[in-house]
Design brief:
With 67 residues, the chain is mostly helical. Helix content is 84%, strand content 0%. It is built from 4 helices and no strands. The protein has helices at residues 3-17, 20-28, 30-42, 48-66. Helix 2 packs antiparallel against helix 4. The radius of gyration is 14 Å and the shape is flat. The termini are far apart.
Amino acid sequence: MRERESRHFNDESTSKDGPASIVVPIDKLSILVTIIFSRVVFHEKLSKKALLGLILITVGTVTMTMI
């Protein structure tokens, strides 16, 4: 699927499932759940660079929901 089509699909599903201000932060924090799952189930280690990225994504998402 092309990026343009993918973006359109995501925008369309957001409008059907609920307000974007609620759906988008939950969608963006799904990476946090995925990383926690991979750590617990598969015992994967997180590099410092990946940990920094995860922290920035989490802080950014939480900050955007508060504004």
